[in-house]
Design brief:
It is built from twelve helices and 21 strands. By secondary structure, it is an alpha+beta fold. It folds into two domains: 30 residues, no CATH class; 368 residues, Double-stranded beta-helix, CATH 3.60.130.10. The structure holds fe (ii) ion. The site of fe (ii) ion has 4 residues, from loops.
Length: 415
């Protein structure tokens, strides 16, 4: 580094920059260098992206006055993206007073169910579809009941939705602090709405192909587990959907816990694990050691604050190790626990997003605290798939030793 001679300029007298300032300057000033990601997407609004925008998405944005004239999506400006992992760790690293709206709900959910045309459970243990209601019309009572329903059923679906991005964001604020991601693409003018657009990711570095389709969001995972207060209700509204395929699957953390033997449950209760971010940054003290993830410690079995049920809180790409175990022991146990989520079809739901009415979108709202999900890339990008996602952050994860499993609480067989 001694050969680098960047200096701070401007009205201040010139001074030699420190090594870390020099590296930061190189990263911020070099178009082709991205921070901890292989993506080559441009910073700021992307005019190229606008050209490829699915027609149904364009119409939704036009209808609701989202300005995409400068480009789409908007990638955070390089000057605002943290370079070093300690800066990224500091984002939202203080307690935020979260009150779960599900606590205020009528357990029978009369306001929500009474207004719906139909309430369909898609499987025994996970997934419910509400028919005949527009999310944009829900009153506060119904929103509280929906929060409880999501906590109980893990994922709730609404088809045929006429939903503005602004309303989607407003709903997210109702259920908690909306996460604004430091690195991901956003809807212009609406920070907090993350763009879920596989075709765009593929164009900008995601090496997805038929023989390697289980990468990115297509592998089983839980969103934003590295946060101080990780994701609670997450709302993905898909406004461009393939005619066939492009499904998403969810798996229940409550049920995964209930699949374990009492002896293994007892062993895991109270254990903690190290959780990592999906995106990477640099180590300030060792910047050439490669990309580094944000790391955070949370309980491996957590208690849901509203249902009171225990849930396994792990996922393969973002749970690094179980605290207190040898690495080989941790790897073995985590691998087994992930298999429980991934291989038990009776604790999963697979959902096809295709709405029945043209021009309308489909919403899925799930509880990230108690689930994993993965999408299915069988359409191979030949038909557009585009969505907007709003994530409401929840409580600091906790384990209550007096809490019960879901099956215990519901009086179901534990065998
Ligand atoms: Fe996800």
């Amino acid at each position: 580094m001694a050969t680098l001679t960047f200096t701070a300029t401007g009205s201040q007298p010139e001074r030699q920059l420190s090594q870390e300032e020099q590296i930061e300057q190189i990263i911020r000033n070099t178009e082709s260098v991205s921070i901890g990601t292989k993506s080559s997407a441009v910073a700021g609004p992307d005019p190229e992206g606008t050209k490829n925008l699915p027609e149904t998405t364009r119409k939704r944005f036009e209808k609701y006055g989202v300005d995409i004239s400068k480009g789409y999506p908007t990638r955070p400006d390089k000057n605002s993206i943290p370079v070093y992992v300690d800066e990224a760790f500091a984002i939202r690293n203080e307690d935020y007073n979260f009150v779960d709206r599900g606590k205020f709900a009528d357990p029978e959910k009369k306001a929500l169910f009474g207004a719906a045309k139909e309430v369909k459970h898609l499987t025994k243990h996970i997934g419910t579809e509400i028919v005949g209601l527009q999310l944009q019309d829900l009153n506060d009572k119904q929103k509280d009941e929906l929060a409880l329903l999501i906590a109980e059923r893990i994922v709730v679906f609404f088809r045929d939705q006429d939903l503005s991005p602004q309303k989607q964001l407003e709903l997210g604020h109702y259920w908690g602090q909306v996460e604004v991601h430091a690195q991901t693409s956003q809807v212009p003018g609406l920070p907090g709405i993350t763009v879920i657009w596989g075709d765009y990711m593929k164009k900008h570095g995601l090496p997805i192909r038929y023989k390697n389709a289980k990468i990115g969001t297509n592998q089983w995972h839980t969103d934003l587990v590295h946060e101080h207060q990780p994701a609670g209700i997450t709302h993905l509204h898909n406004d461009a959907i393939p005619d066939v395929g492009g499904d998403t699957q969810w798996s229940s953390g409550y049920a995964a816990y209930d699949k374990l033997s009492p002896a293994l449950q007892k062993f895991l209760d109270g254990k903690k694990a190290v959780y990592v971010s999906a995106h990477s940054y640099l180590d300030r003290n060792d910047p050439f050691s490669g990309p580094k993830k944000i790391e955070r410690i949370h309980p491996l079995v957590r208690t849901h604050p509203v249902t009171g049920w225990k849930s396994l809180f792990i996922n393969k790409p973002m749970t690094k190790r179980i605290v207190g175990l040898e690495p080989a022991e941790s790897d073995l146990i985590l691998d087994y626990l992930c298999k429980v989520f991934e291989s038990n079809l009776d604790i999963q739901v697979r959902f096809n997003w295709k709405p029945s009415k043209p021009g309308l979108g489909t919403s899925a709202l799930w509880d990230n605290r108690v689930s994993q999900h993965s999408s299915v890339w069988d359409h191979e990008g030949k038909e557009p798939r585009h969505g907007t996602r709003v994530t409401s952050l929840a409580e600091i994860p906790f384990f209550d030793p007096n809490s019960s499993s879901q099956r215990e609480a519901l009086g179901l067989s534990l065998d």
